[in-house]
Amino acid sequence: MLHPKMRPPRTSLSSRCLYLTSSRTAWSFDAKIQITRSLVSTSPSRRPDVQTDRSLPSTATTTGSIPSDPSALPRSDTVNQGLWRPKPRTPGLRHLVRPINNHLWKGRPLLPLTFPKKGQGKGGRNNTGRITVRHRGGGHKRRIRTVDFQRERPGKMLVERVEYDPNRSAHIALVRPPESTKESDYAYILAAEGMRAGDVVESYRAGIPDDLMESMGGKVDYGVLASKTAWRGNCLPLGMIPVGTQIYAIGLNADGPAKYCRSAGTYGIVMGKGEDAVKKEIGRIVEEEGSRPVGEMKQSRREELRKLQKLSRLVTVKLKSGEVRNIPMDACATIGVASNVNHQYAQLGKAGRARWLGWRPTVRGVAMNAVDHPHGGGRGKGKGNRDPVSPTGKPAKSGFKTRDKHKKDKLIVTPRPRNQGKRRRGYL
What we know:
It is a single chain. With 428 residues, this protein is α+β, with helices and mostly antiparallel strands. It has helices spanning 13-22, 29-42, 210-215, 222-229, 274-289, 299-311, 351-356; strands at 78-80, 83-85, 98-99, 114-116, 143-145, 155-163, 172-176, 187-190, 200-203, 235-237, 246-248, 250-251, 258-260, 268-273, 314-318, 324-328, 332-335, 412-414. It has a 7-stranded antiparallel beta sheet with strand order 10-17-11-14-15-16-18. Helix 1 runs antiparallel to helix 2 (29-42) and helix 5 packs antiparallel against helix 6. The longest helix has 16 residues, at 274-289.
């Protein structure tokens, strides 16, 4: 029997195997192999909550980088729900949290679709050189990716790869026609969550293709149309999207680009279509008026029919902020959720990473001199019993209203909740 100090530790499988293979006892080689196999078969999985891809090459873990394979992480690192929390080997890694995106392209972007980000705009300046956005400046060099938010090109597009974009929180996908490899045919689009290289996406903004119309028998069958078009990454007019579908990259008019739900993890939900409710209302009015033509109806009836005609061309969408608004049914939207949904859980871990991203330090006003900020100066930390204001003297809190009450968006059905659902004084 071995001395307790000579026994192998029970916490590590590799150390037990190493002890058995390097022991000075007179065991045969076959006995060592059998013991090692028994240890492997009885040991629990190292990470049962992570599904690893063994086809990917495992890489060694380095400080500040995420391995392509979660199984290559050291045993002390933790992976939970797609987030990487490294062991605090340095102070900068103690609070670091990063989403794991093993599918992203490791190389450089396509150069013809980029241009450098230069000029005084990097420092938060406007065209006259004045600072309009504080705490901006420095950071790593960047190139702006020209993303296609119009999606007007019809036909199928093959996803070449999914890339990281330093200028936005969501990821972008490089697409091209399946039969072409010319650089002029490539384009960047906003990637959907779950989109991978090799997927095929299509834009139906120009209308329903002829082959699809023939498969439906020459007339539109909304059930068949939704089953063949409402797929992740496809761009459709809002009128073609079924009720209850998650959408992102939502436009506001028939010819405009996507405006809403473009950040990471955002999406909207199609709540209803105006044409469904309008048909019932028009049928009710026709029954009440009988066979009387529209010109002979009362003025109030004609105004009601005119409003119903406008509502018939609108789709009700609930945005991520909680706002419910009407959008024209000819506006574009993409099926799915904007990619990189775990972006909201990321933590930089140290101040230096904020500087790499172009963010400069934020100094409190009470810590400044009186000449630099309205809260500055004086003895101690008080701000002179003054309400919070900006460096230019504009009230920052205290219920100060900045929106014009007379300029209301008539397409908003339910405004987004403010002040944690409790409106302040003076808001409608």
